[in-house]
Amino acid sequence: MAVLIDGKAISSEIKEELKQEVAELKAQGITPCLAVILVGDDSASAIYVRNKKRACEYIGIESRSYELPKETTEQELEKLVRELNEDETVDGILVQLPLPEQIDEEKITGMISPKKDVDGFLPESIGALCIGSEGFRSCTPAGVLELIKRSGYTIEGKECVVVGRSNHVGKPMALLLLEQNGTVTIVHSRTKNLSEITRRADILVVAVGNPKLIQADDVKEGAVVIDVGMNRDENGKLCGDVDFEHVKEKAEAITPVPGGVGPMTIAMLMNNCVEAARKKRRE
Ligand code: NAP
User: Fold this and answer.
1) Would you put residue 209 in left (φ > 0), alpha (ψ -120 to 50) or beta?
2) Which residues bind NADP(+) (predicted)?
């Protein structure tokens, strides 16, 4: 029976560390500030934004909220992002997705200054990760890395398989594991022998969006299994991409859904905001 990797506990540990660090920054006259833009009335987005604001409040990060009506034009949003880019008191800018259809998401998110890209989504941030230079790391994959490390598992020399190749999760995940000297393979929807490859993994990270895609037969005995997926099963219950009940009998360690990767994403967003403020101190 696998060890449960507790994302709630590990994310709380990170938030406590950040809280301490923010208190120290404040003592030096630096208050990290996150600007959060929400356009429209999508209820899931409103919940995500509320959770991010709560985390900011807990840690001591100032959160500035811009809640705009769904009729907001692209030009209005461009103007706001430009102003926030120039505002020296703002360390991070987060545009909650999805945006209403009249607005080009890629154009708006692409306008955020790389210095304030706390989501780590910009080509500049991904490029920095690719060549191993300083930059914001995408929050969900960075959270997965922390889960693995803080649970005491080493990555160096391990066979790592990432299922999924999205720009926000799969690709940066593979790059982060590579940076840690893992031997990394990415599999995706066109992979022919998926199970054969996933069964080689010492560390298996699954980010697909397909309930229970990964079964016990797809997993090596003793693997560390990280489930990024967030889906609803046939009964409307939250579930991951991994068949938790069966895989837990075979794995060495596994993340649950909920309570695994989810809480880590916000913790790493907070870490990126503090990182932006840390940089200010170094400048
Ligand atoms: P995405 O952009 O839809 O990408 C899914 C990836 O999975 C694609 O690369 C796709 O391959 C691959 N895929 C789809 N079906 C497959 C199959 N049958 N076998 C192998 N690979 C397959 O999704 P995402 O944004 O990466 O998110 C993935 C999951 O993670 C979702 O459930 C999402 O809700 C969850 N998520 C959770 C958090 C969190 O904080 N917990 C954060 C982000 C995402 P192709 O490229 O070939 O199409």
Assistant:
1) left
2) 164-166
Residue 248 near residue 221 (C-beta atoms within 8 A): no
Buried b (16+ CB within 10 A) or exposed e, 234-256: eeeeebbbbbbeebbebbebbbb
Which domain range does residue 252 map to?
140-262
CATH of the domain at 83: 3.40.50.10860
Instruction: Give the residue carrying structure tokens 């430009």.
Output: 82
Q: What is the CATH number of the domain that holds 211?
A: 3.40.50.720
Q: How many domains does the chain divide into?
A: 2
Sign for the CA dihedral angle at 130, 135, 140, 144 comes to: positive
Residue 213 CA, ligand 1 centroid: distance in Å: 11
Are residues 147 and 60 part of one domain?
no
d(CA 120, CA 122): 6
Report which ligand 1 atom has the smallest distance to the Cα of 266: 40
Burial class (CB in 10 A: 0-12, 13-18, 19+), 17: middle
Helix (H) or strand (E) holding 162: strand 159-163
Compute, in angstroms, the gap from residue 163 CA to the centroid of ligand 1. 8
139-192 pLDDT per residue, tens: 999 999 999 999 999 999 999 999 999 999 999 999 999 999 999 999 999 999
Residues taking part in catalysis: 52, 96, 119
Residues 101-147: pLDDT tens digits?
A: 999 999 999 999 999 999 999 999 999 999 999 999 999 999 999 99
Residue written as token pair 């490029």: 127
* Ligand 1 atom having least distance to the Cα of 170: 26
